[in-house]
Amino acid sequence: MKTYEYPLKTGITRTREFERKKLATHAVNVGIRCGHECTYCSTPSLLRMHPAFKALGLKPFDRGYAIVDPATPERVALDAQRIKKRGMVQLCTTVDAWSPEAQKYDLGRRCLEAILAHPGWCVRILTKNAAVAKDFDLIERHRDRVLVGLRITALPVQERVIAAIEPNASPITERMAVLREAHRRGLRTYAMFCLLLPKIACTAHDVDRLVRFAVECGTEEIFAEPVNPRGPGLRLTLEALGPSRHPDAFCGVCPIRRREEWSWYVAKLLHLLQDSIRAHSNINRLRFLLYPSRLIQEKLDEIRRDDAGVIWLGKEAAQPEANHA
To answer: Is the pTM of this model over 0.90?
Structure first.
């Protein structure tokens, strides 16, 4: 993994999109390319026009490199003091502050220290790396102002499959252990089941076990999101899975490249989450992030009949009142 340094201009920025997702009012990002290299990641598509790629002679969808700005904590510190209207900062929204290259510069902890040094700020941590546990001592000192979240994308039984599509992230068992440890220490936690893919983590048993795990960890919210079918993410995921290396997962993911199959997958995932959360927790804790523009009408109507926990996003966000019983 080659790490490139590139100077960014922002520290803490307002994020209307993540506010609509009920995740955060502000964002911090420590770079523009994450070394975890998850195949389905949408960040290369979102940032493909960033001048860093041209300046460094790189292509947005190539692999084997990360781009980070070691000076990010200094800009974050200035913004944390300067901004008067404070809120929830997500660390991070497009990259991971505890990925291998970020750990090299201790960016996660340094950004946390910079934000939490000023009252009025809260932080939502989202990472796929167990290294965040090294900073629990800092988080404990500000336990009311920090939410700890580990992306969980399958049960441990699918760890080999997940390693193929999340090659540099921590193993699932380690991520789950860190969330359990956060709860044991009395830290605030939330769940992020993103992404749960067919034949990897999208059966009734898989979803129910994940929800029960979230409840055991005292999570305040349970976020989930279907895979984005646009861009090269699904193609790259299928290439990593390979029809011979992980045939079941490959055969499960391949059909959802088509609009109709993707729509069925979205509706099924939502219903499984709703059923399990209703059984083990409170449906008001569900945050199912959904851009509905690619849904076929049949599944869109089906979801709208019971959209408990759905956060409608995009131009189609406005929709009639539904049955949340």
So the answer is: yes
